Amino acid sequence: MLKLMRAPAKYVQGKDALFEAYENTKDLGSSFLFVCSRSGYKIAKPKIEKSFENKTVKIMFEVFNGISSTGEIERMRRIVKENKIQVVCAIGGGSAIDTAKATAYYENLPVVVMPTVAATDAPCTGLSVIYNDDGSFCKYIFYPKNPEAVIVDSSIIAAAPVKFLVAGMGDALGTYFEARACLKTNSPSLENGGITKSAMALCKLCYETLFADGYKAKLAVEQGILTPAVENIIEANTYLSGVGADNGGLAVSHSVYNGFTALEECESTMHGDLVAFGTIAQLIIENAPMEEIAEVIEFCISVGLPVTLAQVGVKDVKRVHIAAEKACMPGESIHNMLGDVTPEELYNALLAADTLGKTFL
Length: 361
Ligand SMILES: [Zn+2]
Prior knowledge:
alpha/beta; Rossmann fold; Dehydroquinate synthase-like, alpha domain; 2 domains; six-stranded parallel sheet; two-stranded antiparallel sheet; globular; binds zinc ion
């Protein structure tokens, strides 16, 4: 397997970055469609309009229906064709981003991502999660390239509810440990390549940044303020975690998330919250040193990530069997683990994580 490294062609981040949206995208085309979440439309549109003011470029905004579904992607493709759009931009969270990425891919156009929260790895990766119109999971699309540009307006991220930044830290917490597990078994990355030293360095830096700045950033964003620690965590959640996971691969943490989507009582638990709890379970499966497990649990507690089953929404522990079965289905990234993992082993690890978590609370 050849080693492979992929990333967005351009990454821009900082206070009021959207005021420079035009400067950073003008070479891509002269007609832009902004696929927006409802809140993204309200927050970002004034800045984008200001940036594109008096330029000979056509811009149009479209609020999408909230799910990156096949029907919604079809609708966006019609808008692209009817208006001869040359560049597709996403404004919002994971679903808006996945809708825009898929639209651009099918129409053979460049895509620019302008996230309004730092909650997931979606902005920088070269893949999308697509749903059916009824909201059920449909498929992943793996793209031949990552976005042409990712522009992160830190002022917008810092003003968003803190739960998004915290969930993003949960998603980022898995990155290093999942990549480390893939490296041990020579498993391919999400881009289906061998893991580079560069990817591992990003994953390691992601973890170190969470520890150095996670708690400070959480306190700042609770007050809606932007500090250097917040900037560092935005970069960790968006770039280091996204590019790290893309090129470093996934293991137990993300399979635990997929498994728990089978439990309706966990429906409102955010992706990153489950990834964080799944990371503790992974460390138990690996029988990692107690020092390392304690460090991860204490970090989770400090920023408000879950460390028990109750905190991810589980009421009846027996139902965790259902999640463990789903997490171990063929094709799941949990099978990248050394010696593989059975549903029973995962169930035991989830319960052990829960017990351990309770002793720290
Ligand atoms: Zn994730």
